[in-house]
Design brief:
Radius of gyration: 23 Å
Shape: globular
Structural class: alpha/beta
Number of domains: 3
Largest sheet: 9 strands, mixed
CATH superfamily of the largest domain: ANL, N-terminal domain
Helix content: 25-40%
Distance between the termini: 58 Å
Length: about 425
């Protein structure tokens, strides 16, 4: 651990990182095939030795969060995706769904220590942790990471605002961890009560968007606030550093940005769905796990010296299903339509309402117009979606870079 970085892994050459990640992934695939019945079926056709690079990774099947619910209903508690028995883990959690998650017995299972370090926390600091400690994993993830970093933790949770303000004033912790909205509530309540909360100078927030205006308000009160992107299933996926130029992917993770509804990686800078492979969790080896969140990769590396990939941040949800004339249309169906025609690049299904009727128009970027392509696409729409749709061919770069595959612009009175 240096003054600037949590460990030397954060600054290693990108090629060295990739080589280490894929070596770990091959080991993890082999383990999952042996010890996790669900993955044995998912990866039955995959030779672990063949997964040498990102092109091979992109050929592995995508596992979606909705898949977890279905698999867990069939085989409680982990859907056959864990390589250990429930009694061999340290914690079991339940997120809405319900979806059951596990924490292994290794320290810092949720990878919070390096995010806390990047946010300014150091050994000997006291962290005021307002994430919940029951049912969902956030509180325990922070707690484990803080203890690995060498920090003391006050397990506050949320609620009881007046008591929380009094406790903050008494204990004078150096930092806060929780949602940005609850931090604002505490600071506002402290100001009203005349309590001295000036000890809190650093904060790591997650679980909500952090608008620039709110970050500026916190800075005006003497609190430097950084954010991290975390999920219950994966732990900390990416985190901000002092450079505040994108979120740096956590070590041990392979992150891809794919076109929603598919497993196809998009070009650098293009908005798509975040798909994560966690090579650090052999107990629960989630591979190509589609988070349902939209983001994009930033070019280059962070000015802070960390060399891993960077995400632009949370840019919305990839769940874009719509109901049209009584039928559900999903991004995966749009991908099937496009996949039947080699000349089509990006596509966007626009759903509007004209004369009290639903209208679907598939807008497709085409580099070289091909006679009869629009008509052929219309046939594919009808075959795949079981609905009639119009087709509009547009030039490359015409569609917005926002990750949307289905754009429902119908007005609801």
């Amino acid at each position: 651990m240096s003054l600037s970085h949590y460990d030397e892994l954060e600054t290693r050459p990108p090629g060295e990182r990739e080589e280490a990640l894929f070596a770990a992934l091959r080991t993890q695939i082999a383990l999952a095939r042996r010890k996790a019945p669900g993955f044995a079926r998912i990866l039955a056709a995959v030779d672990p030795a063949s997964v040498m690079d990102r092109a091979a990774l992109a050929r592995l099947p995508v596992l979606r969060k909705s898949d977890l619910t279905l698999r867990q209903r069939e085989s409680l508690p982990f859907g056959g995706l864990a390589t250990v028995a429930p009694g061999e883990v340290s914690h079991i959690f339940a997120s809405p769904g319900p979806i059951y998650e596990l924490a292994g017995r290794r320290p810092d299972y949720g990878q919070f220590a390096r995010a806390l370090f990047a946010a300014g926390f150091r050994r000997g600091d006291m962290i005021y942790n307002t994430f919940s400690y029951h049912f969902t994993p956030a509180g325990i993830m922070v707690d484990s990471g803080a203890r690995e970093l060498g920090c003391a933790v006050f397990p506050a949770g949320v609620g009881q605002t007046e008591l929380q303000v009094a406790t903050l004033a008494d204990l004078k912790p150096q930092g806060y961890v929780g949602t940005p909205s609850f931090l604002k509530i505490l600071l506002d309540k402290g100001r009203e009560a005349g309590a001295d909360l000036s000890s809190v100078q650093s904060a790591l927030v997650s679980g909500e968007a952090l608008p620039a205006s709110l970050r500026t308000q916190f800075a005006g009160r003497g609190v430097r606030v950084l954010q991290c992107y975390t999920t219950a299933d994966l732990g900390t996926v990416a985190y901000e550093s002092e450079a505040m130029e994108g979120l740096i992917v956590s070590e041990g993770l392979l992150v891809e940005i794919v076109r929603p509804g598919t497993g196809d990686p998009v070009a650098e800078g293009e908005v798509g769905e975040v798909v994560v492979t966690n090579t650090l969790t052999p107990e629960y080896p989630l591979m190509r796990f589609a988070t349902g969140d939209l983001s994009a990769l930033l070019p280059g590396t962070s000015p802070c010296g960390r060399t891993n990939l960077r995400l632009r941040g949370w840019l919305g949800r990839a769940d874009q299903s719509a109901k049209v004339r009584g039928m559900f249309v999903h991004p995966s169906l749009v991908a099937q339509v496009v996949g039947r025609h080699a000349g089509v690049g990006k596509a966007r299904l626009v759903i509007s309402r004209v004369n009290d009727a639903d209208v679907m128009t598939l807008r497709c970027e085409i580099r070289e117009p091909e006679e009869g392509l629009a008509a052929a696409l219309a046939v594919s729409i009808r075959d795949v979606c079981k609905l009639r749709g119009d087709v509009e061919l547009v030039a490359p770069g015409s569609l917005p870079n926002d990750g949307r595959v289905i754009d429902d612009i119908r007005k609801v009175d």
